[in-house]
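Consider a concrete sample entry:
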Amino acid sequence: MDFASLVKVLRSGQTAEFPEDADSLEFARSLDAQDKLGHLRDQFILPTKGSLKKTALDGSIPGGGANLDAAHKAAADHDPSSPAIYLVGNSLGAQPKLVRSYLAAHLETWASIGVGGHFTDLDNSPLANWQDLAAACAAKSAPLVGASPDEVVMMNTLTANLHFMMASFYRPTARRHKIMLEWKPFPSDWYAIQSQVAWHGRDPDASMVELQPPDPSAPEYVPTAAVLAAIDAHADETALLLLPGIQYYSGQLFDMQAITAHAHARGIPAVGWDLAHAAGNVPLRLHEWDVDFAVWCTYKYLNAGPGTIAGAFVHARHGGVGAEGPGRFRPRLAGWYGGDKASRFEMARTFRPTPGAAGFQLSNPSGADLAGLAAALDVFAMTTVEDLRSKALVLTAYAEALLDGLLRAGAGRAADGTAAFRLITPRNPLERGAQLSVRLREGRLLERVGAALKKEGVVCDTRKPDVLRVAPVPMYCTFEDVCRFVHLFGAALTAGD
């Protein structure tokens, strides 16, 4: 089956069939040869097996971003200059090559014209002046989340933005005070929600409703029907529905459109989404889906750099600014940088926000952060979200098929017949992004396998006690990366048997 046929099957929600020789490097390379996004790998600096062992800075930059001919086909398995297998874009994306030149432009601007960089666009610079740079990045981000530029703002970090959005959208009353959330949220989300509830004088145990997986045989999966049923059960007491676009632990992609529509139909005042694992990973249509607000980071699938500036979406209907007087704009925690740009530097005591999401800003955003983000977003401009999604569907299906092959072969099976692992990410390709989560057998198997993979230059993510998260990101990962990973994973499972 050719690449286009695989995409068609997977986009219909069906399981793709791969030939018997699918686990060969030759087959993987045949898929890479059909990949029209393969050139994007050249836009990134990927770690090498040697650079991963670096213990001190030496001024060198790894050359792991080389194209397939120069990298995979010419590099020996144990050559320290050969590229690492980087499958951890769900935690930190690889570095775009443009970042270095964009940061250099930022630093040259600062050194050359100082404070004038806030207002002056320099010829040959890839960056807007600092006062306009956040808006420029918001405009570039808008297509990735399905929004208009005015509905997107780049500011703060993810959890801070979550707090600021809840300050505006979580308006508990005596009757409506509950927040509905996922069964196993990322801890920072849990802390944010719990503290917001307590801040309003409520008991978190009474006001936080967790959506639990209904089937004990699939303890990591919450089907859409279960979410809708929970909404029906709690709608009259719910002030906010706040869920992840993609669940960080299991990799499940939620049906944001159906869930948002159902919550609104049942009268829930606000629906928000944490898109940390969705932005840059899967197509989003936030405006069309009538989402009230959303937040995301930019250091995972968006590749903007560790801990860098985050993004937020506020639907256009919540961003209006009316005439003077009470109720002229949505309540929020305000700061001077959210003030109307035309009067921002007048230092008035009356706050009049910039219309749209930009009116939720508080402080001057980091120019260095925005320079890195601008570089990363310019790489996204070289392709489309739909093309990235197509490749991601095939990459994850290919990884799934090869992992299933290990299970059929009994790799790492215990003496009592217990399998070495199972996939906890949904099998339906339409219910996942670029991440597959592998739950290993109880015991110290994760520790052993993780150490073996690290030794071989495989970079992936472990979640103790027993989950390995693997994310073949379509921008810079290849089918050969996936094939080599599964070979090494299988060897690690059987080592010592």
Notes: Residues 385-409 form the longest helix (25 residues). The radius of gyration is 24 Å. The mean pLDDT is 94.
